[in-house]
Amino acid sequence: MNRASVNQKSYNPCILIVDDDSSVLKSIERFLHAYPLQIFTASAAAEGIEILHANGPFQVVISDYLMPITNGDQFLGEVARTWPDSRRVILSAYADRKILLSAINEGRVHRYVTKPWDDHELLTVIQELLEEYRTIEATRSEVQEIARKNQMLALTNQQLENLVNDRTADLVVHQKQLQDTNQRLRQLSGHMEELREQERRAIAREIHDELAQSLSAIKLEISNLLPVAANQALRQRLLEVKHQVDHTLETVQRILSALRPQVLDELGLEAALEWLVNDFSRRSGIDATLLCSLDSAPLPVTLSTCLFRITQEALTNILRHAGATQITVRAWQEEDQIHLSIKDNGTGIAAERRNAGDSFGLLGMEERASLCGGHFMITCPPEGGTLVAADFPLISLLEDAP
Ligand SMILES: Nc1ncnc2c1ncn2[C@@H]1O[C@H](COP(=O)(O)OP(=O)(O)O)[C@@H](O)[C@H]1O
Ligand SMILES: [Mg+2]
Fold first, then answer.
1. What pLDDT sits at residue 402?
2. Which parts of 352-399 are beta strand (E)?
3. Is position 195 within any domain?
4. Rounded to the nearest whole angstrom, what is the distance from the C-alpha of residue 317 to the centroid of ligand 2?
5. Which residues pair with 338 in a beta bridge?
6. 309 lies in a domain?
7. Which of these three, 62, 82, 117, is where a domain ends?
8. What is the number of structural domains in the chain?
């Protein structure tokens, strides 16, 4: 091995020249001596391979074509397989044109320089090939950087995907829990409402059976005592007591109706609505009309209670908030649906009050409707006022018949 570089700095590009003619090697070495290159020379392919293994990487490998044992094409072919980035040159007086073309086409050889060569032509070739090598290196490191970034991106993507999957799974679990809780709350609310109705009915019965009956008995007793009263003063006193009892009886009746109108249980929804609307109209002075066309078959108790209570709350709201002068209550049956609507000609409900979290009266109506499988709405129709409406599918009611 003959090492003859002017500049031994390790970052100088390495060039290997292989030729069985030592005068060629010497001549090239002498000329390249002045340039910042590390020059290695070998007199045969095998020696060249050894040098490449021991001192690489080599940027440029220059080889004679005609050499004993292994020719330049074979040698450079081997170099190309092991060090594909190296730039390879055939420097020869003789080279078969066909072989040379296929060597170039198949990538074993990059350049061909004929002997006798021109030193400056050779130098230009070496400089061009060094530039090519640098471009390849730069491209390779760029490609590697892109690949590294891609890998990081893929990793981040994967982590994000895992995170999203985890979160989605958590969300699904939480959503299910929320749905279960909602379902339980709804059941509880329905149950509480039922209990309240039962309680009201029981209290109403007790007041009716105990208080109203005793008051009626007292009234009868006074009526019996009146004709036999000893004097006018006593008769006057008895009449006053009788009036007081009448007044108390009226109050008791009012409380009874407010608790749970007997008419709802005894005569059904239509009669109860009639009583409710007339009583409301009489007490408020607002003109209220009831239009009812329900089938004669009695509705399930829960539904008739629901329709009655929604109407009651809607009328109370009209009295408190609407400033209306006219109200129409409609209840009608249509194929497989029961409809209820309460319409007033008042100020109309403000949009923000419709969905307010503290509108417990509205929420209560909605909840009642949904417990019966119905759908509740409160809107402002174009002609003004407020429309409260609820629809109930008959199917869900039949399952729950009285
Ligand atoms: N018929 C109506 N006309 C105008 N505003 C109404 C009517 N019904 C309800 N509102 C409005 O909706 C709000 C919520 O009603 P509600 O939930 O029953 O609560 P509350 O009657 O206790 O105020 C009322 O405060 C009122 O502003
Ligand atoms: Mg209210």
1. 47
2. 375-379, 386-393
3. no
4. 5
5. 333, 392
6. yes
7. 117
8. 2
Ligand nearest to the CA of 357: 1
* 198 within domain boundaries: no
Q: Please tell me if the CB atom of residue 373 comes closer than 6 angstroms to any atom of ligand 1.
A: no
- Looking at ligand 1, which residue's alpha carbon is closest to its atom 26? 321
* Shortest-distance Cα residue to atom 22 of ligand 1: 361
Whole-structure pTM value: 0.61
Closest residue by CA, ligand 1 atom 8? 317
Q: Which of 284, 318, 342, 349 for mutating ligand 1's site (highest number of atoms within 8 Å of CB)?
A: 349
How far is residue 95's CA from residue 99's CA, in Å, rounded to a whole number? 7
In the predicted structure, residue 281 carries a pLDDT above the cut 90:
yes
**CB 321 near ligand 1, within 6 Å:** yes
Given a cut of 70, is residue 396 above it in pLDDT?
A: no
Q: In this predicted structure, what is the pLDDT of residue 134? A: 94
Q: How confident is the model at residue 70 (pLDDT cuts 50, 70, 90)?
A: very high
d(CA 111, CA 128): 10
CATH number of the domain that residue 338 is part of:
3.30.565.10
Encoding tokens for residue 364?
Answer: 């209560």
Last residue of a domain, one of 82, 117, 152: 117
What's the pLDDT score for residue 97? Answer: 85
**Residue 108's domain spans which residues?**
2-117
| Residues paired with residue 378 on neighbouring β-strands, in sequence order | 388
- N-term to C-term CA, the chain: 112
Of the given ranges (8-22, 314-328, 332-346), which has the lowest mean pLDDT?
8-22
Domain contains 149: no
CATH number of domain containing 88? 3.40.50.2300
